UniProtKB/TrEMBL annotation:
Residues 30-539 form the Cytochrome oxidase subunit I profile domain. The keyword DNA repair does not apply. Pathway: Energy metabolism; oxidative phosphorylation. InterPro entries: Cyt_c_oxase-like_su1_dom (IPR023616), Cyt_c_oxase-like_su1_sf (IPR036927), Cyt_C_Oxase_1 (IPR000883), Cyt_c_Oxase_su1_BS (IPR023615), Cyt_c_oxidase_su1_bac (IPR014241). Cytochrome c oxidase is the component of the respiratory chain that catalyzes the reduction of oxygen to water. Subunits 1-3 form the functional core of the enzyme complex. CO I is the catalytic subunit of the enzyme. Electrons originating in cytochrome c are transferred via the copper A center of subunit 2 and heme A of subunit 1 to the bimetallic center formed by heme A3 and copper B. Its main location: membrane. It catalyses: 4 Fe(II)-[cytochrome c] + O2 + 8 H(+)(in) = 4 Fe(III)-[cytochrome c] + 2 H2O + 4 H(+)(out). This is Cytochrome c oxidase subunit 1. It comes from the Bacteria. It is an enzyme of class 7 (translocase). PANTHER family: CYTOCHROME C OXIDASE SUBUNIT 1. It comes from Fodinibius salipaludis.
Amino acid sequence: MDTAESSSTSKKIQVHRYKPDDNPDKHFLNEETGLWSWLTTVDHKKIGIMFLSAVTFFFFIGGIMALLVRTELWTPAKTFIEANTYNQIFTLHGAIMVFLFLVPAVPAALGNFILPLQLGAKDVAFPRLNLLSFYLYLTGAFVAVFAILNGGIDTGWTFYTPYSSTTGGAVTTMVFGVFIIGFSSILTGVNFITTIHKMRAPGLTWDKLSLFSWSLYATSIIQILATPVLAITLALLGMERILGIGIFDPAMGGDPVLFQHFFWFYSHPAVYIMIVPGFGVVSEVITTFSRKHIFGYWAIALSSLAIAFISFLVWGHHMFVSGQASLASMVFSFLTFLVGIPTGIKMFNWTATLYKGSIDLKSPLLYIFGFFFLFLVGGLTGIVLASIALDVHLHDTYYVVAHFHFVMVGGMVMALLAGVHYWWPKITGRMYNEIMAKIACGIIFVGFNVTFLPQFVMGSQGMPRRYFNYIEQFQPFHQVSTIGSYILGLGFLMVFYYLVKSLFTGKKATANPWGSRALEWQINTLPPLHNFHHIPVIINGPYDYHKPMEEFQLGLAESTDGHGQESDLEITSDGKEINAE
């Protein structure tokens, strides 16, 4: 045991070299058992697991909807369902995937579990608020499911007026469900920002903060500022349907295009709520499996904040054909090109981190390589759509569908899968079958490209999205895309199979199976109830791979005031007074 004493305080502080096998059986899953303990828990780790289970469930529901859509489009005319049913299915696919899966998947699920561990905190700042956010999510999901059973909706996930304000179905109920889910997102953002500002361990300065924490910080800013706009928009839509107030009805002096302005002012930043946390996952996995300090730490960290800022200024690129002023379209086009710069900074820095690294081709890194290719295609095709002349031709075609899925599924979902595989040993204490993981990664990559690359061709030739019937020249593309969707579905099922199987038959994970230098890997697997037995004093950064592992240590500070109780420690915020030998 290494010890040190702070010369600037009257209290003695001991700094212990961490022993990962200290009390390995005392962890959060063994503290309380039974369903009620889970339903009433305020432990961020259990709440994160419940979020992960819920979003996985809705991912499979949304995936089934996608397969039904692709199966129906096997033939140019009706294949097996009616047109109205088709409209409801693709609407539900979009709404479920966006609001119940993509938005909460990384921040609420992985973020809840990992963030306090990376900060050296015992929990999030507001544990009960954290549990409330989960129940708001479930409540909104329940209301949305009730809307499906009570008439369904066929407006598309964007709820565009004037159709959504006049059509039948349970639009009001669905809108209310999404309204509730939005509060869950806001509370999560408030919790994360407060936790990052107020609950960092001694010595954990901003330049030692993990890039995953930086990404959650940027995401939380977007959640807090943008989500209320969506809530107001959906509330106005509900009032229009119930009270007939006419905000979006031109017959009553309203403007249906105003709804698009409101909706996309939230929904384009929401794209970054989905993808920016994935960027943080990429940074963590890249450094761990290349055994190198991240290249351009501050550039990556600040580019997340830049994306958060610029994302509020680009909503008008969804409306180039809506009749907005030419000058406005030019400004939005320029800003859309601009938002690609901080994203490009990340891509270059990740590549530079890999350069001359000691690459370990484990499955999390393979998913990141898949992310690189797919997200690059999605990003470059987004630049195409930022060009006004090209967007006029490609607007509302399958080109946009392919672009969106390359960003969201090829980018965010691949990053999510990398994160789940990376942190699975820490979350569950078990190792999965690495061979099956690599095979599944290949199947998902192939299936995704077979599904969506043909849609770029269709879109460039004028195939509109959302159409139930289409002309015969597009049938070969649709059939290839449908085959690819089933390959993609097989890959996801394979991932689900071996991860669930690992819970029962997987090898027990060691404290740090990847040899990472990040703080969450320096504690027991599974983590203790309150994460750390002592207050951690951060001596090293999360990416200090230039130090040999035997020299890398986590300081654990405890008061030795003679009473065996933790007390306030007067140490410098950057940990410089801690002289760990």
